[in-house]
Amino acid sequence: MPSLPTNFGTLDWLIVAVYMAATVGVGLYMNRYIRDMGDYIVAGRSLKSRLAVATMIGSELGLVTVMYSAQKGFTGGFAAFHIAVIAGVVTFIVGMTGFIVVPLRRLGVMTIPEFYEKRFSRGVRIFGGLLLAFAGILNMGLFLKAGALFVTGLTGLTDPNAVAVVMSVMLALVIAYTIMGGMVSVVITDYIQFVVLSFGMILTCGMAVYALGWPTIVETVAAVHGESGFNPLIEGSGFGPSYIMWMIFTAGLVSCAVWQTSVMRACAAESVEVVRRLYKWSSIGFLIRFMIPQFLGICALTYFFNEPGFRAFFFDENGSPTADTTMTLQAMPLFLSQILPTGIIGLVGAGLLAAFMSTHDSYLLCWASVLTHDVVAPATNERLTTRWRLMLSRIFILIIGLFLLVWGLWYDLGQDLWDYMAVSGAIYFTGAFTLLLAGLYWKRASTVGAYLALIAGIGAVTGLGPVNKALGLGMYRSDEIGLSVTALALVLMFAGSLLFPDRKEEV
Amino acid sequence: MEFWSTLWTVVFVLCLLIFAGVAVYVGVGAIGDIRALFKRMERRGPN
Fold first, then answer.
1. Among chain A residues, CA nearest to B43
2. Does residue A441 register a pLDDT over 90?
3. Which of A235, A338, A344, A384 has the smallest set of CB atoms within 10 Å of its CB?
């Protein structure tokens, strides 16, 4: 790990502290408005278009997304932009057509497993809820680690104990205001994040181009990556046609219409019209949340490639980016610590750290709500009172928070973070996509088909590096496995529904 | 390569400009939405 002098000074620490305190204060204040589960999970379904857009983008533009997208820009060059374009275009199409999200909003459900019960059975809801929460909590299990890498790179704080303390305090603050304020506090803090991050990121792009020069950026990408740094269709670029297909499904459709945290925004919208507007307007946010960090990753590549003193840390002797994923992850924050002046770096750092907290609050609320609303409540025949539901959700938030602290910060997973996240998410969304698609648009979809599709989704775990190798599937990439599992889930849903139709259909 | 380089340059600048416009529109407009949200919740009374 290179030890670089950073522009992050006392003033920046002060900006971060004030910003965090203000955000947490707002979140805690919102507790006075929470009266029932509807207020807690979907803010009483009273979000209007522009606030809904701000909260959607504020929540999805998280630090983890920024870190991985920057890494993709570093390792893939401009070709990585195709992921951003896909995310924006698909989200816009979902807004135009209302695909999945409009029928879900019409049904008035708060979570996707709730839809499972309305369409299939209570058992599917409980099983789907457990699967969703399991995959979701595992998926966010290493967010803290990514956050720690960001703090280390940006601030120059290299003492692992100091980093652990900073991250633990931040997590404790998030848990406190999410427990107290629910969705209302999430919405308001997301709005603050949206404003600070939107303008902070645009400003950072401008300063990066000013510092490096556009022609130098393009020439460096060409020198490091060749044509594959621009053309995503080239098979050897790490992308290629199957990867693009996988991105259309994951970065496009899943992230906006199947992933529970996004769907929650659709469910919280005031009306179906607001849902459509929300997705159309958010499409540029879904695009930019990938594109700006990818660009900053490209800028980091340019900066370190042209700095002889640091080149050896980030590139091998052939001039290719290093295979050390920790280094490629840290390149972007290290780059920001070099080019942004004191004051600006504090504001951008605070915005990104707040985005880190923002993603945490949304996810904590989401998975705790799923466990309460879709696992415990239906398992007890809906006998839980509102008071108990709220208390249970808060207890789950606390438990998940403690799990994250142990899993993400203190536990050394020893594997690639990106594969870990993609695979853990796919355990849920490959099956969930099938259930939503068939459940909403195919009358003959049955409960047996739903169970089979959910079980098939678990097969996505074979895309995980160590499991992949242990099973001798090393010749298949994670995108190929993900697409195959999705196809399998669709086939099983189709076959299961035809062979074992629901009784009510026969009536 | 020239084609892709030009394409990504144009796409990037265009998206950045559109996003800046959306950020201003949404950022300012959402303040009204937050007021409306608070009013609605105030009417129902605090917890």
1. A33
2. yes
3. A235
Q: Taking the CA atoms of chain A, what radius of gyration do you get in angstroms? A: 22
How far is Cα A306 from Cα A51, in angstroms, rounded to an integer?
Answer: 43
Task: Give the burial class of A262: count Cβ atoms within 10 A of its Cβ; 0-12 exposed, 13-18 middle, 19 or more buried.
Answer: buried
Using an 8 Å Cβ cutoff, are A260 and A370 in contact? Answer: yes
pLDDT band at A236, cuts 50/70/90? low
Q: B33 — contact with chain A (CB < 8 Å)?
A: yes
pLDDT of residue A506: 45
Residue A462 pLDDT grade (very low, low, confident, very high; cuts 50, 70, 90): confident
Q: How far is CA A138 from CA A27, A378, A381, A459, B22, in A?
A: 25, 23, 27, 16, 34
Q: Which amino acid is at A114?
A: E
Give residue for tokens 């920046």.
A12
Using a CB-CB cut-off of 8 Å, the residues of chain A touching B39 are none
Indicate the residue type of A10: T
- Could A284 and B19 be called an inter-chain contact, meaning their C-beta atoms sit closer than 8 Å? yes
Asked if A51 lies within 8 A of B23 by C-beta distance, the reply is no
ipTM of the complex: 0.87
Spatial separation of the C-alpha atoms in residues A176 and A162, rounded to whole Å: 21
In CATH, A10-413 is 1.20.1730.10: yes
* Token pair belonging to A399: 């438990």
Q: Could you give the 3-state DSSP secondary structure of residue A340?
A: coil
Q: Enumerate helices (H) and strands (E) in chain A, giving the number of each.
A: 24, 0
Closest CB from A50, A187, A222 relative to B26: A50
Domain with CATH 1.20.1730.10 in chain A: 10-413
Give chain B positions within 8 Å (CB) of A34.
47
Residue type, A225: H
- Average of per-residue pLDDT across A453-474: 80
A16 Cα distance to chain centroid: 23
Residue A124 tokens read as 């599917």
Helix A272-305 × helix A49-60 angle, to 10°: 30
